[in-house]
């Protein structure tokens, strides 16, 4: 395993982070989820990402039980706050001081921990003053309930404003968690240059584009049984935008490139995001333990300039690069 510094901090995290979005407490049974976590540990993964909203708290509980008994100092555990949780009352959402303070306590209780290594704003809250949000996060750090603060899917301007206030409050934002893959490159134009300037790293999710870059979805063919695209519990909603024949055809053209590099298509996809120097870690999920071991093989791979250029050329017409999508796809009101 390779370990990289997170932002302009002294914290190192594994180049692969195991994430339990959708799967734990929802898509797979608890015993399979635990087996996947154990496979991640066996593969050298030390960083684990979850959120209070995943399966309405159940994902945090599953992860906490799966990691119980492991040496805490050897792990980096991340969680997030923002989306509606619990009974979804009027204050059970957003980044108000009330919700952040109650949110961290709830997450720690479900995880069975006294602190998390990274506490992240799961989105930007347009209805709460940013000063209130940052001061609450600073108090969470001072209380010892989180060691570091990060965000997820913030725009370049939001990162700049947040980092300015964080510095005034005596903390720093050290990470952003955006979607990023060879098919979804919206952070490259604005977010990554701004992050590099501010000392913020990316912990990217969906490096395999919800599974589309695995090559298992074929143009004109039926959706594979048991795949995310057939998951009625939420997975199908997230992959829908990637499932068109043009994208699936382009992905199939990557097969010779992957074979020449000695990689599978999923390994090529993960290796591709790890080539970006601003990416500290790529989040992978798994519904089977063997998927973890396979994805970890992407670590340490150095793709040549010719290979990167060939990937760019093949995906040029289907990759999304519009930097405005970060703001356009964000909540414009606090979710109820």
From TrEMBL:
Pfam families: Aldo_ket_red
Coiled-coil residue windows: none
Top-rank lineage group of the source organism: Bacteria
Keyword Oxidoreductase included in the entry's annotation: yes
Domain NADP-dependent oxidoreductase residues, every copy: 16-315
Gene Ontology molecular-function annotations: oxidoreductase activity
Keywords from the UniProt entry: NADP, Oxidoreductase
Alphabetized InterPro entries for the sequence: K_chnl_volt-dep_bsu_KCNAB-rel, NAD(P)_OxRdtase_dom_sf, NADP_OxRdtase_dom
Family of the protein in this entry: Belongs to the shaker potassium channel beta subunit family.
Protein name: Aldo/keto reductase
The species this protein was found in: Nakamurella alba
